[in-house]
Write a structure and sequence with these properties.
It contains 16 helices and 13 strands. It is an alpha/beta fold. This is Glycosyltransferase.
Length: 395
């Protein structure tokens, strides 16, 4: 049985988007290709004391915690962490060693020196480091610190790329960005987006869920718009609500409501006074079922490098639900897929509601009519299909 060592500083301890992506990839590698993983994670000590979510799938996990904002604690724990990594490498024969997360890159040189000749080294890239500096806060000191950290991590990434054979990326845009940013030549990239567990959808099941949850939320013949996700400013929740209210004013043929699904729904309770806005928080395992109730999904982002190269978890959940998307051209891969498959519309200015958007919404569509396209897209982006070239290269 093939084995992989996964070294990371990402949060694979508690429920999170990072864990979800890594866990789903691990499941497919184990169930479809018989590959197991040893995980070594160095992270904030506080995360180790919080409620954990297990990765499972015949994997093992070693965690080393450090005190956040304490560089001495990090250095001390990193030394211990490196010793454990040496032990892992000495005691196992790994087909591949994956390094994921900015702080884990510190281990690149050590791994390169200690690994056997057959072990391939892969850098797991989830996004651009510009995320640290593109979204400014009102705290000037915090912005300065983030700029310093960004410069250091950028240097670290550039310096250590020479140790890797290839990289995982979540989008074509991210692959293009890495190649251009670091002048990479003949550098292999495995494009593995944030996919979902199912690689296909069943229309009859979607109809059942659609009826069930439209009844739950009191939706009759109204159009239901859905926003699903967190409430961070970069996710454009305020702009989404404002755009919906403007759409509501201008629609003449239909009434409409907005369903906001968020684990932070309570922080939006000021919106409860508007009867056209529904707030709810549901468990992660039924989100995909609830989404079937909707007609249009919002996935709005502004023009930042962070967004340009991203592949939001929600995108394929929206696709599998049957909803049409209202998105922006600034998530490059998403915008291209929406346009080429006619799965929605893009708007350039999220602060304005143009007549073209109202026309698009009012022309309507028959739910389920494009499910063959959706199935094809989901199949092409499935973890099983996207991981196959990587598995072939290491076995």
């Amino acid at each position: 049985m093939s084995k992989i060592l996964f070294i990371t500083s990402r949060n694979i301890i508690n429920t999170s988007g990072e864990l979800r992506l890594i866990k789903n990839r691990t499941q497919v590698l184990n169930e479809k290709y018989g590959i197991t993983k040893d995980f070594a994670v160095i992270c904030n000590k506080h995360k180790l004391k919080s409620k954990r979510e297990l990765i499972g799938n015949n994997s093992t996990i070693y965690a080393q915690g450090f005190l956040k904002y304490n560089p001495f604690s990090f250095i001390f724990q990193l030394v211990k962490f490196n010793k454990r990594i040496k032990k892992f490498i000495n005691e196992n024969s790994y087909e591949a060693i994956i390094i994921s997360g900015a702080l884990a890159v510190f281990c690149s040189k050590l791994v390169y020196r200690k690994k056997n000749n057959k072990s391939k080294m892969i850098l797991d890239v989830h996004g651009a480091l510009e995320e640290l500096v593109e979204f400014k806060t009102k705290n000037r000191f915090s912005n300065i610190v983030k700029q310093i950290v960004y410069n250091f991590l950028k240097y670290l990434e550039r310096k250590n790329l020479k140790y890797f054979d290839s990289m995982f990326v979540v989008s074509k845009a991210l692959e293009d960005y890495m190649i251009q940013e670091y002048n990479l030549e003949n550098y292999k990239a495995y494009r593995i987006p944030c996919s979902i567990e199912m690689s296909s959808i069943d229309l009859s099941t979607n109809y059942i869920n659609r009826k069930k949850y439209r009844e739950k939320y009191g939706i009759n013949d109204e159009l239901l718009f859905i926003y699903s996700g967190g409430i961070s400013s970069w996710q454009c929740i305020e702009e989404t609500v404002s755009l919906f209210l403007e759409i509501q004013k201008r629609l003449t043929k239909k009434k409409c409501k907005l369903l906001i699904l968020s684990f932070e729904a309570e922080k939006l309770r000021h919106l409860k006074s508007d009867k056209s806005i529904i707030l709810d928080s549901v468990s992660a395992d039924i989100v995909k079922d609830v989404l079937c109730a909707g007609d249009f999904a919002f996935l709005l982002r502004k023009d930042y490098i962070t967004n340009n190269v991203a592949f939001p978890n929600k995108f394929l959940e929206y696709i599998s639900s049957g909803m049409k998307l209202i998105t922006t051209p600034y998530i490059f891969d998403v915008a291209n897929m929406v346009k080429s498959n006619n799965l929605g519309t893009t708007i350039t200015n999220i602060k304005e509601c143009h007549p073209e958007l109202i026309d698009y919404i009012e022309q309507g569509y028959k739910y389920g009519e494009d499910f063959d396209k959706r199935k094809g897209l989901l199949a092409s982006l499935s973890f099983e299909k996207r991981l196959k070239p990587f598995v072939k290269d290491i076995q």
